[in-house]
User: Which sequence fits this backbone?
C-alpha cells in the first residue's frame, strides 16, 4: 500500500527521503490558500520567489507582484498574501509573482527531489485527496510551519488530508498518525481549536479575520494546483 | 502567568530560548522511564553519556554500565535500557553510567542553558507536575524523538504534562496546544493510540512488550529526577 508521511517543518526535511514522492506543500495561513484561490479565480499561473527583490523585479515583466513579510503586505507590492484579493476574477488571466515568509521556503526545499509538488489547502482538500489518490506515488506532506516551528493550522490540514486518504494509503509515521487523530477529534469544529493557535492571534492583530475564515472553508474549489518546477498552475484530475 | 512550550525534537532546539527555563527531557521508550525506575528503586545516581565508549569506560570506576543502540543492549554492557531491570531494588545503592540513542542527546543539547533539567516519564507524571508547579520558571518540554523526528509517545507525554499543569501555566505554543488536545482526546486509553506508533512496533519486534507496558504506567512513583549538570539524582518537592 502507498504511504503518507508528514514533515512538520522545512527544518526537518533533510530527515525525509523525498526522492520520487509527491510532496504536498501546506501553508494554510495564507500562502497555499492564496495560491489555490488565485488559480480557482482565473489567474494564469504563479511563480514563487524566495527573495523579495527577485519577486519585485518581475513587475517589469508584466507580472502582478504579491509579497508578504511578517503577515503584512511588503512595501511597494500590489498584493500581500490575501486569498480574498483574487475573488470575483479580479486578476483573471494575470500572471502572479509571489513571495511569502514560510510557504515559498517549503517549495524551495523540496523542488529538486520531489516527483511532483502539489499545493494543499482546505479550500480544495477533497479534490487534492482525489488527485493524490489517482497517482501511484507515496506522499510527503510538508508543513511550512512558522519560522521553523510546528504550527497548528498546517498540522491540522495534514491530519485532514491523511484522514481523507485513509484506506488507500497507510500513515507511515508517528507524525501523520498523531495529526490524523487530532483532526478527527476536532473535525466538527476545527475553527474552535484554531482560535487558540498563535498564528490566528497574530493575524487577528493584523485585522485579517476574514482571511482566516476564508482559509478554513472546506472544499470551496475543485481546483488542483501543482508546481512544475517553474510555475504553479492548474492540473486536471 | 508562567509558560509552557514544547520542542518536538533535539533538531529544533536551536529555535527555542532555553535560557533560565526548566527543561523537561522526555524519552518515554525508554531512557527517561528507565532513569526514573532506577532512581525510584534505590540507584544512587546516573551519569548520562553521549558516546558508547565513554560510558563503557566507567565500568572500571565502579559504575554499572547501561547502553542501548537501536533498541538493543549495546555489546559488552551489563544493562540495556529496560526500566524493569531495576525493579525490586536489584541495583540499590549502585551508580549507573548510561547511554541511549536519543535521550542523552536531548540532555546534551540543553544542559548549557537550562535553569534546571528534569527527567519526565509517565511513571512520575503527577509528581513531576507538582514539582514544576512549585517553581517560578517557565517550562520547555524537550521530546527526544526518534532520529530527529517527532514520535508519538514523547509527544503524548508532553500533552499529558501540559494538561496536568493547566490553570497554572499557559500553553504558549501551537505544539503544546496540539499535544494537550491530542492527549485529552485519548487520555482514557493512550495505549490504544500508542499501539499504532512506529516505535511501539519496533520495540515489539525486540520482544520487549513488557517494557512498553511498564513505561506507560501512570504515577507508579513519586520520585523526582533532576540532572544537576553532572549526574541525574533524586530531588525533593
Assistant:
Amino acid at each position: 500500500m502507498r504511504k503518507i508521511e508528514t514533515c512538520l517543518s522545512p527544518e526537518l526535511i533533510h530527515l525525509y527521503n523525498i526522492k520520487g514522492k509527491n510532496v504536498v506543500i501546506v501553508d494554510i495561513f495564507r500562502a497555499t490558500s492564496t495560491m489555490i484561490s488565485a488559480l480557482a479565480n482565473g489567474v494564469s499561473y504563479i511563480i514563487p520567489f524566495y527573495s523579495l527583490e527577485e519577486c519585485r523585479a518581475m513587475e517589469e515583466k508584466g507580472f502582478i507582484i504579491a509579497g508578504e513579510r511578517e503577515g503584512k503586505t511588503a512595501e511597494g507590492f500590489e498584493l500581500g498574501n490575501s486569498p480574498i484579493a483574487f475573488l470575483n476574477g479580479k486578476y483573471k488571466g494575470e500572471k502572479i509573482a509571489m513571495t511569502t515568509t514560510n510557504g515559498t521556503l517549503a517549495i524551495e526545499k523540496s523542488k529538486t527531489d520531489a516527483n511532483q509538488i502539489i499545493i494543499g489547502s482546505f479550500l480544495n482538500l477533497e479534490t487534492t485527496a482525489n488527485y493524490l489518490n489517482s497517482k501511484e506515488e507515496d506522499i510527503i506532506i510538508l508543513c511550512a510551519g512558522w519560522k521553523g516551528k510546528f504550527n497548528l493550522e498546517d498540522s491540522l490540514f495534514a491530519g485532514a488530508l491523511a484522514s481523507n486518504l485513509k484506506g488507500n494509503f497507510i500513515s507511515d509515521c508517528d507524525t501523520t498518525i498523531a495529526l490524523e487523530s487530532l483532526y478527527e477529534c476536532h473535525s466538527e469544529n476545527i475553527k474552535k481549536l484554531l482560535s487558540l493557535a498563535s498564528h490566528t492571534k497574530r493575524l487577528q492583530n493584523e485585522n485579517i479575520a476574514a482571511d482566516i475564515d476564508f482559509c478554513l472553508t472546506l472544499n470551496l474549489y475543485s481546483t488542483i494546483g501543482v508546481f512544475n518546477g517553474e510555475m504553479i498552475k492548474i492540473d486536471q484530475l
Remarks:
- The mean pLDDT of chain A is 93.
- The interface with chain B takes residues 8-9, 11-12, 15, 146-152, 155, 171-175, 177-178, 181-182, 185-186, 193, 196-199 of chain A (CB under 8 Å).
- The CA atoms of residues 1 and 167 of chain A lie 9 Å apart.
- The first strand of chain A starts at residue 2 and ends at 7.
